[in-house]
Write a structure and sequence with these properties.
Elements: H1 3-19, H2 22-31, H3 34-52, H4 59-72, E1 80-82, H5 84-95, E2 97-100, E3 103-108, E4 111-117, H6 122-126, E5 133-137, E6 140-141, H7 147-154, E7 161-168, E8 171-178, E9 180-183, E10 187-191, E11 196-201, H8 208-221, E12 226-230, H9 239-246, E13 253-260, E14 265-270, E15 279-283, H10 290-301, E16 304-308, E17 316-322, E18 328-337, E19 353-354, H11 366-378
Parallel strand pairs: 11-12, 12-15, 15-16, 16-19
Antiparallel strand pairs: 1-18, 2-9, 3-4, 5-6, 5-7, 7-8, 10-11, 13-14, 13-18, 17-18
Amino acid sequence: MSRRKIIFGAVLLVLVTFLTTSAGFLYLMNAWSSDVISTVRVLRALQVVKARYVEEVPVETLMAGSIKGMVNSLNDPHSIYMDAKMFKEFMIETEGSFGGVGIVIGTKDKLLTVVAPIEGTPGEKAGIKSGDQILKIDGQDTKDLALDEAVSKIRGPEGSKVVLTILRGQELQEYTLTRSNIQIKTVAGRMLENNIGYIRIAMFNENTGNDFIHKLQELEQEGLQSLVLDLRDNPGGLLDESVKVASQFVPKGPVVSVVTRDGHRETHSSHLPAAKYPVAILVNGGSASASEIVAGAAQDTGVGTLIGTKTYGKGSVQTVIRLDEGSAIKLTIAKYLTPKDRAINGVGIEPDIQLELTETQDNKDIQLDKAVEVLKSKM
């Protein structure tokens, strides 16, 4: 055991011993606020469990459980406690690769729901879709499973298998997926007809903004005069990267405003002198968070036409706060507003042109076709 942990344990023991004595408790009752008294209650519970539980339990285990319970009590699926294992996986994911089956999950209507499958991954290849509800993981009911626990159970070593029981509409189906190392290339693009460029963004990680700029410059050199931006099944990611992307076509002014509970407002803006060309943006129910920031900014400023179906509706902002060298809390600290001050959390963004893909269209991408049609009319 490290010297730091020994010192921490000793200090905690002295503090708990004092605060849980009659004298210490009465002192606090008379001197401090109800917040402090509540803290003493937690420490008292820790001392009781540590001293009286039938089996020996490490203090670290009890403290981790206390923190996890505290965060879970917020009833916010986007606020989670991450132990050392989860925190490491989270950091790897934001850097561009992680182990698993390649689906982004969230909680919607209190049910574990697929936000979006990631292109080229086992989940996407198996046919898992946005909106699928995950009822079981390896036979375990997900009803009372916290989001972080579900993520941990779905991930695992490359080559191992996981069974997901999924409800889609009224149809129940089991998917046996083989986990792989998910390498995420977030940006891909090509030229279409009539000098229309097409760029697909799969999610927003640390490389997305720069990769998007490079791809856009490539297409501009090929003669790009208008752009289709495909954000379908894009579950979001880093806010700063979404601002960097939007700033390449949204004219000078606000892209998104972040508002904290005390009313403090931080506005992220584009400095582009003027819109360079018309843009059509493809969205659906799997377009969430950072992708909704881009879509909302384009729609509010009039630079882009949104085509597809209503977006997911995640309009809150999280930050990661490290507790020590291993663990952290991902905490919702603010909501974000579009340039016209629309709050979309739990609501989503309605496209300008409502157009749904169905499985009876002979694999034709009618949403992309509509985007090309719209852009042709503006050129």
